[in-house]
Amino acid sequence: MATLIRVSGDFDLAEEAVQEAFVVALERWAADGVPSNPGAWITQVARNGAIDRIRREGVLRDKVAVLERLEALHAEPEAVPGEGLGEIGDDRLRLIFTCCHPALAIEARVALTLRSLGGLSTPEIARALLASDSATAQRIVRAKRKIAANKIPYEVPVAEQMPERLPAVLATLYLIFNEGYLASSSEALVRTELSGEAIRLTRVLVAMLPREPEASGLLALMLLTDARRAARVDESGEAVLLEEQDRSLWDRELIAEGLELSRTAAAGGPAGPYTVQARIAAVHAEATDAAETDWLRIARLYAWLAEIAPGPVIELNRAVAVAMSEGPEQGLELIESIEGLDGYQPLYTARADLLRRLGRNGEAAAAYRQALELTSNAVERRFLERRLAES
């Protein structure tokens, strides 16, 4: 889809053509088998569909140039991205920067990229952005229209434009990773196709901007977090809390790479939010077991994070760290003071856990019920139901 958007300049045309190509693939591959290069096959069929759609709609006068570019498109295997600003051969990365153009509002940038490149549904994006489905859908439509109306170029910006474009790109990659690492609406806890794509794109970004500490910090955060993936569910597919995970299942190669990137990011200049979060993940990775986790240091890092990137979600994470380092009473007191997370499921889960630890089982059960009402992931629901039964 990113390739078709580059060629046609039309998000809707590209999305519809690719969707139609998927339908054709479902029919033909079942009978003929999967082609040797499925991505190229999809791209070629989608390209043909886009050409047919333009011709059917009878707008050739305005679309002659687009038709010429589509007809010249021949799908090829993906190029390996280079390291220079002018050598990035990845249409998906170009698509991110197009979606994150400063002419678009930050919420629209993130929503459009999650929809176009991450493939998330509108409800999934709404959850990620803590927004309503209708507001999120409107943001996406308005963003597409603005890109077309302003003729926003489909390109990676030059070095001078990076400071104003990079924060939204990093935020988008982070949200795509989060949706993959903890799927908002799924039968599985993890959607590896999303977390893996976020990591892949962030690697491309780091290769392109090796001296940008926040890009390295974000990749470090992703790798250190993803390293725990195999231990997050047991053999029956049920969720396993961090403190109960079998750390022998953690990916030590990813941890080593993540720790090195974290050090590189920390040495690159004033720490940004992703670099600090990477240091928090590093504290977990460096502990040989749950009992050795330096929760006091984690709480201090969250306090630092709250200063440079204040927000209720950060305050919630800090409260949990304080609960682990100073006791559940202190953590619960902080949670009760947080505003702006009324519909945020992790708030109620964290509150329920601290109430359970304090022996206030009736209140804990009520909080678990509130968390259940806000949870659509099947694995999370089963975990919360078990906790509720124990309260």
Question: Care to describe what's here?
Answer:
The protein is mainly α and about 400 residues long. The protein folds into five domains: about 1-70, no CATH class; about 80-210, no CATH class; about 215-230 and about 250-290, no CATH class; about 295-330, no CATH class; about 340-390. It has 19 helices and no strands. It has helices at about 1-10, 10-30, 40-55, 60-70, 90-100, 105-115, 120-130, 135-150, 160-180, 190-210, 215-225, 250-265, 275-285, 295-310, 310-325, 330-335, 345-355, 360-375, 380-390. α11 packs parallel to α13. The chain is globular and about 70 Å long. Mean pLDDT is about 85; it is low at about 75-90.
Q: TL;DR of this structure?
A:
This protein is mainly alpha-helical. It has helices at residues 2-8, 11-32, 38-57, 60-72, 91-99, 106-116, 122-129, 133-150, 162-181, 192-208, 213-226, 252-266, 273-286, 295-308, 312-326, 328-336, 345-357, 361-373, 378-390.
